[in-house]
């Protein structure tokens, strides 16, 4: 795809703009070339960067949610600290985690995480629901090669599903009107903590940008949809 040689450097600059600024003395870490890279198109490399960055944002979201909702670690029955639990969640979830999810993934797992009657770890269920939805939209978590196909409509739906999940996270309450998970809100000093919304916005923007890249490079159209978040259902992927 010689006509798309500009995609990877442009995408890297876009993703770099979303990063936390490194320390002044921190050296740049270029991607290490591997022989398998010769079997990848520029779109494949961009997809890998997008998925890797998305997983990083999900990891950050899990850490932040556990920090504000430490009771979820106890609900999950974990003796380890939140970093160890998140490492397990973003690696290969163990049997104990999967048992709480009752075989669900994607939107069904997110729905379980934010159901008042759910007695397990809401943070793990929510984040893994988002992660499994991401993998379904991209056809895996990488690496990707020339034969891999990307559906821009699915990735567009993924962005909308992330919006729906973010809205539900901020509004899901129990029978007494208490939030099921604390996220955006006032901090100890009375200032509004909008870091969750910024993180969710980065996740959504990444998917929207990549969906457009795929659509433009393959001359495919994306069907835009408009629905109210309060009554929205997750799009099937």
Keywords:
9 helices; two-stranded antiparallel sheet; globular; 54% helix; mainly alpha; 237 residues
SSE arrangement:
Elements: H1 7-16, H2 42-68, H3 71-76, H4 82-89, H5 95-101, H6 106-113, H7 122-138, H8 152-171, E1 185-186, E2 192-193, H9 195-218
Antiparallel strand pairs: 1-2
Helix pairs in contact: 1-2, 2-4, 2-7, 2-9, 6-7, 7-8, 8-9
Helical region count? 9
> Percent of residues in helical segments?
40-55%
The N- to C-terminal Cα distance equals: 27 Å
H/E series, N to C?
Answer: HHHHHHHHEEH
* Overall outline: globular
Largest sheet, spatial ordering of strands: 1-2
Provide mean pLDDT, rounded. 86
Radius of gyration: 19 Å
Q: What is the number of independent domains?
A: 1
Please give the largest β-sheet.
Answer: 2 strands, antiparallel
Secondary structure category: mainly alpha
Spans where pLDDT lies below 50 across 5 or more residues:
none
User: What's the β-strand tally?
Assistant: 2
Q: How large is the share of residues in beta strands?
A: under 5%
């Amino acid at each position: 795809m010689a006509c798309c040689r500009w995609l990877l450097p442009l995408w890297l600059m876009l993703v770099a703009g979303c990063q936390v600024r490194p320390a002044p003395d921190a050296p740049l870490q270029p991607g290490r070339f591997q022989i398998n890279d010769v079997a990848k198109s520029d779109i494949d490399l961009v997809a890998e960067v997008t998925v890797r960055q998305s997983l990083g944002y999900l990891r950050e979201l899990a850490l932040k949610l556990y920090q504000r909702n430490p009771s979820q670690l106890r609900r999950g029955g974990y003796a380890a600290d939140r970093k160890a639990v998140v490492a397990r969640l973003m690696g290969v979830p163990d049997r104990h985690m999967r048992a709480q999810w009752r075989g669900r993934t994607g939107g069904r797992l997110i729905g379980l995480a934010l159901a008042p009657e759910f007695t397990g770890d809401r943070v793990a269920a929510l984040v893994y629901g988002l992660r499994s939805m991401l993998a379904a939209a991209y056809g895996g978590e990488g690496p990707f090669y020339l034969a891999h196909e990307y559906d821009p409509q699915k990735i567009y739906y993924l962005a909308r599903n992330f919006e729906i999940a973010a809205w539900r996270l901020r509004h899901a309450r129990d029978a007494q009107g208490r939030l099921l998970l604390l996220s955006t809100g006032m901090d100890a000093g009375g200032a509004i903590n909008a870091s969750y919304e910024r993180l969710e916005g980065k996740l959504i923007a990444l998917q929207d940008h990549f969906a457009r890249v795929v659509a433009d490079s393959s001359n495919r159209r994306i069907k835009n949809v408009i629905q109210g978040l309060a009554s929205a259902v997750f799009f099937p992927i």
